[in-house]
Amino acid sequence: MVKKYTLLIILILSIPAVRYLFVNGYFGVSDDLHIGWLFEMDRVIKMLQFPPRYVPDLSYGFGYPLFTFVYPLPFYIAEIFHLIGLSLVNSVKLVFGLSVPVSMYFMYKLLRVYMKEDFSLAGAVLYVYAPYRALEIFVRGTIGEITAFVFFPLILLLVIKKRPYLLALSIAGLILSHNIMAYMFIPFLLLFMILNKTFLVSLKSLFLGLLASSYFWFPAILESKLMHYDTVFNFYDHFPTLRQFITPYWGYGASVPGNYDTMSFYMGAVGILVVVIGSIIFLLKRNKYLNNEKIFIIWSILVCLVSVFMMNFRSAWFWRNFPLLPYFQFPWRFLAMITLVSPIFLLVFSKFKKLKYLPFIVIFLAIFLNFNYFRTSEYLGRNDGYYINRYIPIPSASKEYLKTSEEYLRLPKGTEVRPDKNYPRAFTENSDALLEIKELNPLDAIIQTDSKSEFVLSYNKYKYPGFEAKVDGSRIKIESGEPYGQISFIVPSGKHLVEVRYRESPLRLFFDIVSLVVIIYLIKKSL
């Protein structure tokens, strides 16, 4: 029965988790700025900038290389919905909503390799109804991390099934969904490959997946050197206590230093019992399981142990010394890995005939005990206009925008301070210079100049690879102007035609081509 109506059952079981996404407008979450970011992606895509990288309106119109550093795939998906007519808010909510049944389906398919339909469905429900999943949607509102949950079980399934080309595409999808989550998951994935004796085949897939997504991650790593080294949050302040994992507290606040957090790190009663009791039974009855089943369970136990350790303050040495780990910002992000492997422990119970009703108990309890976490903190009813007004300071900065600090944007090294007001597209301190500005699009412009002496022309975009300036058709060198790091260059005296344009840099263009060729190759081989 389950097998025949799997998709329908999954859709029905998903309803309690997504019901609050059907409210009018958006709701209160930490990362509501994603609506503004989607607005910016829409702007640059309509400018035919693909792949989107530098957006025009942030930082009082100085723009920002946002999608050089921010995971783009969730926004690509949301942009498709927006282009076919959905609002920005509804496009983002649809990405959140679809992540629930799709991730449930892929977890079901993964568990079906080892278990019957009922246990597999129970594990899929447990995967979706983990409190951390509710935290991601309705407290933090992190669109990238919730998209990554779709790819975790799919990647493991494709390793087991030895589907190298689909595996490569899925790895690329994970990297493009959330680079931090991918970095967290890949070491565990490598261990999974080794234990399943598919390391060499799967390593090829990992390499191809990295190539397919290299247009994003390689420039992101390379160009990080052009930015001030900074993270908004210090990982030292965000180690949860062991008590917080097992305390059924729920809140809509923030992670703060110490154990005074007003957000929850609760693992969920069902998940805790399944993992703890499952581990004990497995250690006592391990001879009852086939070799591939042992591998799957042992891997899951190791993932749990490492994740708990990495969330404990005693792991601080690793956080200080491993490359890029401080960019995780929140050690409790490893709850995602525990959420991933918790359903796998149902394999332990599936071997006992007397527990044939356990799947239905797990499904009931996972939903009944946790569905109330999957709700909004308050009905704000905010639509596109509110978020555009709050996060987009063009044509002028609103009172709401002035309350934001944009501290999440790491500034280019040539920038001493953040811009503090709106500027014309081109401006100069030389009062004798006359400027006639023709804006070609939100990034490019042509400026007619007339001055009795040479002068420094500032252009209100950050100096960043991809921008170029020409005077009377001849390319000139640009510098970082003071104090904002704006594009700055000298214009000779007299009348001149100045052009400033943004184009893909040669290095990025090279990796764009590499990624495109590899993606086409992988799709062709997968068909």
From TrEMBL:
The organism of origin for this protein = Candidatus Woesebacteria bacterium GW2011_GWB1_33_22
Keywords from UniProt, A to Z, are:
Membrane, Transmembrane, Transmembrane helix
Transmembrane residues, as ranges? Answer: 7-29, 84-107, 142-160, 166-192, 199-218, 265-284, 296-318, 330-350, 357-374
Q: Does the keyword Amino-acid biosynthesis apply?
A: no
Name used for this protein in its record: Membrane protein 6-pyruvoyl-tetrahydropterin synthase-related domain-containing protein
